[in-house]
Amino acid sequence: MVEQEDPIYLDHNATTPLLPQVVEAMLPFLSQHFGNPSSGHVYGRRAQAAVEQARAQVASLLGCEPAAIIFTGGGTESSNLAIRGVVEAVGGATSVVTSAIEHPATSAPCRWLSQRGHSVVSLGVDGEGRVCLEQAREAIKPGVSLVTVMHANNETGVLQPLEALVEMAREVGALVHTDAAQSVGKVPVDGLGVDLMTVAGHKLYGPKGVGALMVRKGVSLAPFALGAGHEGGLRPGTENVASIVGLGAAAQAVSADLDAEARRVARLRDALWETLCAGIDGMALNGHPTERLPNTLNARFPGVSGSALLERAPLVAASTGSACHEGHESPSGVLVAMGIAPQEALGSVRLTLGRGTTLLQVQRAASALIDAWRVLRPTV
Predict the structure, then answer these.
(1) Is residue 324 annotated as part of the catalytic site, yes or no?
(2) Which of 22-31, 246-255, 296-305, 324-333 has the lowest mean pLDDT?
């Protein structure tokens, strides 16, 4: 019996595989080093030392002090803690500014705040997927307590003008949170100047179920979970030591060759795009041509559904931003917010490369997608 070949994995913005050194770092804490970090004996001290080492490793990647790192259960929890924590610490009704293209980990808590009487202003984006700074200048005014805008969009990879938003926020005394789950480990994040930053372990070759929130010194947060005093009292509960160790190891690994890997994967991404354009007339890029993650290509295939295209190309494991409900496909809200017509948006596919992606894989994936499109394209 011939085993079926695994498809070429081009969905690294969804999740990444564990690096071998991450697995190696975690294994002892899944077996012999089982102590509770809060225990005073040697078992607890070993676990606590490992947690603190991981804290320093993550801080080094983010360019902050280790004390600024709070470990959480993942990116969603980190963003909830940042957004709800700031607003509840301020007290009373306040104002929050966000964007129309946020991940649900940000948009859902913002909607929750709006339902409870807080003002939430959502900034639009231009045709290349970047937040409209003119709208931001009007929205970020005295009385705003928090600006929360992602660093890189999970669908298009477009990098947002955070430096400009931070400058506006500083002028009115507002804090800035960014969901950097997609950008950490792919591009530098140490010069953004934000007050709070979300990290998700499984987006940078670490384990699932663990994340971090960078909290600048002096920022007050109210915890939304109550318990003992773990993680500075902001995230009660015994630490997930093995996964925290894995996150630390992943942070150290990706920081070692961040720039070189970004250049390598960008070359592969561009080769993929050029090959697709050579084989299919009318291809269109979703997002900014340069201000985006080096691994991300969100492309519109003319005249076909992106989901149907991927079904016809089983060699490629990728995704679309579309949602299917009871047989009806709806386009990505991110692409529609960029002004792309819904029917055209349905033809989009997100192709995201990673550390294991090779030129041969890119060539084979491109050929598979081109062949699938030629089968599906409408007759003219």
Answers:
(1) yes
(2) 324-333
